[in-house]
Structure prediction request, 332 residues.
Amino acid sequence: ALDQNDAVEFTASFSNMEFDVIFADFGPDYQFMDGFDLGKIGLFDQALGGELSLAEPEIKVGVTSSFGIDVSVDIGSIGYTYMAGETELSDELTFEGSNPLAPFVLAGPTNENFRESKKDSVQINYENSSIVELIASAPRSMEFNIGSVLANSSTAANPRVGNFVRSDSKIDIEVDVRLPLIGRAKGFNTRQRVEVDLGSELDGNANPVKTATIILDLENGFPWEVTLEAWFESEDSTRISTLVEKGVFLEGAEINSNGETTGIPGSKSTEFVAEVSKLDDAKFLVIDATIETSGNGDVDVQMLNNYKIGVTLGLIVELDANVNELTSGEEE
Prediction:
């Protein structure tokens, strides 16, 4: 028999336990996860330089939890990389005042509502951070570094007592980078290198096509001008044939003082020649584009859903073939 002054001590362990939900008390500042990162988010990964300015960019960080625990997520830094000429540099986002993500506290569902999940988010924008300068650098990538995730953080307004864990409980951290289509660009240069293998298509085939000239008549309703150059390269990056000579490919539409188009599109006729006979060794197509918004890149322009581009296409083919080979049948 036990009386009121006796004490009982016991130890228990669990193995391969199956459960639906467990109610318990985790206590304050229980370390749920240690430091990790969300990986790199690619943005302007083909950018080479120039100026890019967006009026109100925003990063939204959302946390969803189905644990019956108040969670404190400490996002210690947001780093990014960008190009300065041929050199890749790195920097970190700075904040006006305190970092709104250090920590970011999410109150989990209560024990009475243990089947539910809770979600909350915080916005990083031009009012509380240097995100405008970040976007202006045309970042190739961004990286979010998570310091720690604490359960029942003592930084919460009312640290809770009594928690639960479901068998399917989880924490999701979502990052949404919003780039509104209001802004300007000046000399913003990107380059894309696309792998091709035209040699395998042409090798061994009697191809009578010597050159193919494509003629484009373009009417551009968007308030941006595009300068384009394109060429083919061999395996060792040697330029073997130019597809598009460097020049203005799209003329930007006229804009008014509000950055909206006036309805007068930019017009441009362009032709480019593919020298088919030189493409046996082509392994890459390189497209180099420079974008500048109308108004010499000095005015914020708006991208509206009624803007469009009109295209008229023509094709001229030069043949290099023996007339006798093109004659079908024999004369009697």
The two ends are 125 Å apart (CA to CA).
